[in-house]
Amino acid sequence: MTGAQKITLKGVAKAFGDKHVLAGLDLDVPAGQSTVIIGGSGSGKSVTLKCILGLIRPDAGTITIDGEDVTDLSRSQKEEVNRRIGMLFQSGALFDSLSVVDNVAFGLIQGKRIARREAQAIALDKLAQVGLGREVADLSPDELSGGMRKRVGLARAIATDPEIIFFDEPTTGLDPIMGAVIDELIVKTVKEMGATALSITHDMASVRRIGDRVAMLHDGKIIWNGAVAEIDQSGNEHVDQFIHGRAEGPIKMGVRA
Amino acid sequence: MNFLRPIGRVAISFLEATGRLALFTFRGVSHCVRPPFFPRLILRQMIDIGYFSLPVVGMTAIFTGMVLALQSYSGFARFNAESAVATVVVLSITRELGPVLAGLMVAGRIGASIAAEIGTMRVTEQVDALTTLSTNPVKYLVAPRLIAGTLMLPCLVLIADIIGVFGGYLISVFKLDFNATNYLQLTWEFLKPMDVISGLVKAAVFGFIVTLMGCYHGYNSRGGAQGVGRATTNAVVSASMLILAANYVLTSIFFGD
Ligand SMILES: Nc1ncnc2c1ncn2[C@@H]1O[C@H](COP(=O)(O)OP(=O)(O)OP(=O)(O)O)[C@@H](O)[C@H]1O
Ligand SMILES: [Mg+2]
Which residues of A touch B126 (CB under 8 A)? Predict the structure, then answer.
């Protein structure tokens, strides 16, 4: 299982104004495995993914994908790198000027230059994989429920069979059964396509289902990183508090009693 | 020397904004002339900008032509120069009022809707999603609009010219008792191709300004619904100001000597 690292982050820092979100974050994402980032709300998990995608430029540090430094790429080079990456946004980020099927087919048509008809056939197939039938294909995204939107976003992220896939809270807002179905789909995608997955989730059941490795983000750093089986014996108070969902502990949420 | 500080700050932020706009303009234009193009998107924008602006621009033109005829008649009647009415109407419309008023109306209609649409896409992460699907957002969102605006405004203004002259004709013939053939002859007599051409060149510039301002403010909008609202207002106001300023410059180039 121990192969090359697919993605490596070294000392990545990012501040918005005087708010330091990431403060020297180090993370290795091994190839062909599923890594899950956990951490409190607002701890910078989404920002981390956006840094890797080049949507946010880190203030310091380096990010490499397959050994290639992607921190300071030009726009067209970034496009080339992003061709190999699929991303499910936390908010879905579906194009509301396009129908559901065109949303899913978008990366195939624009990125891979596949003919429209063929791309739509693939898109319908991917929609079926996330449990959405033909009847939603021609709807516009704002006619969907929140959970359906999430699944369309998921179908769009895996449509191009990317080698790296980022899932930002794939099962948030889904019912438990659909959540389990989506988790299975993620596992299958990683196993069958040999993809490298990097997911964010708050749901510990989901972490145990989809994760090979777990990394915990706190105070802008990865404070614990290990195999999912070791998570109960991490010996780290922060991790313990998080996985047991205790209000008392070393992690202080910014709320006043 | 402390009182100089705010002045310096304003000057610097002004230069910064100008630089950003110049860079954005350069990027937008460079994507207009480099393939791949998006003919479907360009066509859709052309219909939106050209066809659906016809009623507004047509109404503006016909009332302007009518008012021009009334005003110039009541003015010129004081020194028995009523025969100049036709010439005044056609020259004012083709040289100035056609392009400027059409430009301002389109700024309100199209500039605002472009800023709102792209701004919403920005704050809902759809612009980021484009990047992750290896599509350059400037190429996909900005270039088609710039092309459509620059091409469609001259067409609109040509139609506005005809409608405006017709408005003047209506008033002159049916209210001011001009002879119909006589009036049309007077309209043609002093009209030079340059009068119309200069108006159409202005229109192309205004079309570019309106779509550019819409795209620029939408693309850089931040901060939710409020940010989009601000972007919309800024797009309309800045487009209107720039149209009036550019109009002066263009007039002095065409007719300065
Ligand atoms: N574009 C931005 N501009 C300013 N601040 C930002 C921006 N994006 C994120 N932040 C801030 O960075 C912090 C981390 O945001 P992020 O979205 O990464 O949180 P998260 O860990 O994904 O949380 P959640 O689990 O709630 O999604 C937040 O405090 C947020 O306010
Ligand atoms: Mg998040």
Answer: 93-96
